[in-house]
Structures are given as C-alpha cells and as structure tokens.
Amino acid sequence: MTTCSLLAYSDKVKGRIIFKQDTLNVTFNISPKWISGELSFERLQQKIKYIDANGKKKVLLPDQAREIQFEFGAEKVRMISVPNTLGLGNVFASSKNIFLRIIVDGRLKLFNYYFTQRSSGFYSSPGMTTGGFTYSVEKFILQNEKGELKRPSEITFRKDMAKYFSDCPDLVEKIESKDFRKNDMEFIVKYYNSNCR
C-alpha cells in the first residue's frame, strides 16, 4: 500500500472518466491535504472536481461514472464506482455509489477504502483532559463477481476468510495454516484469481 505525495506535483493532473457509453479526457483537480501534501483518497471517494475540454469546471459524483483514472508520478490510479452497500464514507453523501481505489483487478477485486480515525482524549492530570488526534486509515474491501462488497473482519480474520473462500479449499488451507495472513490480502486475491474456479 502506498500513499501518493503531492509535494513535487501539481494538484491538476490529466486523466479519464469512463462512462457506460464513452470515455472523456479531462483535467482533475486533486487538491492535496494542506499540511502533508498527500493525495486525499478519502475525499476522492465521494466526488472529484475536473475541468472538461472546453475549460468548464465540473464535479463528478460516483453515481455518474464507472471509473476515473489518472497517473500520478509512476503510479496509475484507478478508482471504480461501486454500490455503497457497506455504508462507507459520509452518511450524508448524496450518491448511492462510492469510488474505491482498485488494488487488484480480476474476477475477485480488491480495493482500498480510506477514512479518518479519531482517537479519544485522555486524562493527563486531575481535572485536565488532553484532546485526541486524527489519523488516516486504509482498509481492504473485496468485491466478488456478483458485485457484492465484503469488508474482511480483522478480529476473526481466519474464520471469516475461510468461510468467504469456501469454494477454494487450497486457499482456505493456506489461510488456516497462517501461510496467508490479514496483511497478505493482495496475495490472497491474486492467488484466488489465478488458482480458484
């Protein structure tokens, strides 16, 4: 998993919007986070601003397209519009879909979902509480051939994934024997796509 840094790059990048019927070449405005200069995938999951060929500024919501693509440094970023059946992101979002960054494509897809976690404050001395802090988190999301999304359980990972991959005994064995662990999701999905039917 990598985080794109915008420190050396412009916040405007050439890219493509893929619709059901056609593809549009545009310039995306991928405003970086103010302090870190990193690309905010969390914001891009909900909407993305772009400039069309006529120079008109527009906003694209996940319900309006199938995919967005742009290159950032040496990375090719693809974000796919999927039905937000897991209630990810902003509960007040107007779209029924969400853009998720695809990590592994194939029969079984693996996405990264980004969100901000907030820590609670704690007592530092009698009568005084220090404030908490926020930090970015990435979690894996699976999508099967039927389009159903699945967020792997972290607490009961082996049991959860053994059940999910019950159609592939070889993979289940590797998960249960700890050959594949929860940090190996990319390898797990690639193994499934290559070896399981």
Mean pLDDT across all residues, rounded? Answer: 87
Helix content: 10-25%
In whole angstroms, how far apart are the ends? 27 Å
User: Roughly what fraction of the amino acids lie in strands?
Assistant: 35-45%
**Adjacency order of strands in the biggest sheet:** 4-3-2-1-5-6-7-8-11-12
Unreliable runs, pLDDT <50, ≥5 residues?
1-9
Structural class: alpha+beta
Largest sheet: 10 strands, antiparallel
Shape: globular
Q: Helical segment tally?
A: 4
**SSE sequence, one letter per element:** EEHEEEEEEEEEEHHH
The whole-angstrom Rg is 19 Å
Notes on the structure:
By secondary structure, the chain is α+β, with helices and mostly antiparallel strands. The protein contains 4 helices and 12 strands; from the N terminus they run ββαββββββββββααα. The strands form 2 sheets. It has a 10-stranded antiparallel beta sheet with strand order 4-3-2-1-5-6-7-8-11-12. A two-stranded antiparallel ribbon has the order 9-10. A hairpin with a 2-residue loop joins strand 5 (67-72) and strand 6 (75-83). Helix 2 (157-164) runs antiparallel to helix 3. The radius of gyration is 19 Å and the shape is globular.
